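Hi! If you just cloned this repository, the fastest way to understand the data is to look at a raw example. We've pasted two of them here, unedited. The first protein comes first, obviously.
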Amino acid sequence: MEKGRHGKARSARQGAINWPGTLLGGRPQSREDLLFHLRSRAAHELWLVIVDASASTRRHRALTDAKGLLAQLFDDAYRQRARMALLTASGQAPKWQVQGLKAAKGLVGWLEQLGAGGGTPLLAALTEAGHWLAVRRKRYPTEQQRLLVITDGRLKDVAELPHLECPGLLVDIERGPIRLGRAQALAAGLQLDYRHIDKL
């Protein structure tokens, strides 16, 4: 998978592996694909996170476990001084929580309040995210953009997906005895790497 429009993100050669950053850059095939934590970062990074918080994600602790993943991601973003954008998809329309601000510990408070309910405006969220990223690329052409989508993939139609032009990862949180398995097709349509949360 491509590492982004501006090349592979800068990283240290050794030390603690930066797993969220590595996975957001695509599936690692070798040691060269692993990113390590830096003490200081000159590269400007943006992590855009889209969280599907529709009613179906309440089942089988799906959203609860996704919160654990998000807490780790927020902590890594804070330590790496990455900028965060956070968009939730629930109810009637997607809602921005943060747009390009430096990751702050205040996101943990938002995470504790996050609940699931309503419909799944995930396609609207993806479309809005695509427009926002395109505008931001013009404003910050050297920014390293990464995308993380957390969803159970329970959409009626994935035929007309937006072209996001952003490398990243889709984490499938669908659980239960009957799985529709739509998240993998969604990831392929968005040209994102795919992982089920149980494999992370």
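Ok, and the second one:
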Amino acid sequence: MNNSEKINLNYQVKTSSDSRISIIFLHGFTGSSNDWLPFFNKLTAPATLIAVDLPGHGKNYSSTLLDYYNSEFIVKEIDSIINNFCIGKVILAGYSMGGRAALTYICSHHEKIRGIILESSTAGLEDPGQKKERIEQDSNLAEFIEHNSIETFIDYWLNLPLLKSQKKLDKKILGEIRTTKLLNNRIGLANALRGFGTGSMKNLWPELKKIICPSLLITGNLDDKFTAINRRMNKEIKNSTHLIIENCGHNTHLERPEVFVSLLNSFINQFI
């Protein structure tokens, strides 16, 4: 790693004077810490709330070095945030890529986490052939990002079949989502795929049995792929609950925010 670059992840914090728990929120690919801010005032527990910009996203500096995008860097940065800013019991909450980051952290630092919330996430790929194929796909997509405008890529991304259920949202909301995603950096997004794409992340399926804290898995009923993955994860994680939100797809907190925050409050309040 080039030590001339001193890079730390950007984050946003909301504190409570009577905070007894801390919750770290991790966004999905093409998102940012801003995605979680609308929920901060809707959570009822007295807590320190921290939303993190994952590598290559939000206000982070977009290095050309992949060392600043891999799982080791992400784990180190989450650990630093926990050590320096968290009060009381620590809960991780992650959506999609952010869920993979949360899982990666807890599998190596399970003693520091008292609860975990995973929305539409996965424990990775087990088959070496599938991993190789996914790495190639992510590499091709990274090159597409680098050789096109950010507008072209975001429009491509928002039209993926995985996100088709979002089309039912109000046009104003869809426009705001697109505008926010356009603030990301092409180099950062491309390297985020190379450094921490689904193919690049460690296969965590054998590690799931080590997670013993209360765990909440959330998926949308229109997202068949990730609902099936989370049904299996629910069987592997000892103290987990898998809840399926009706009439939504991959991004449940965007498509059904009221239901999503209700599930979060029910889960989080058990730690008070």
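That's it. A detail worth noticing about the second one: The longest strand covers residues 89-95.
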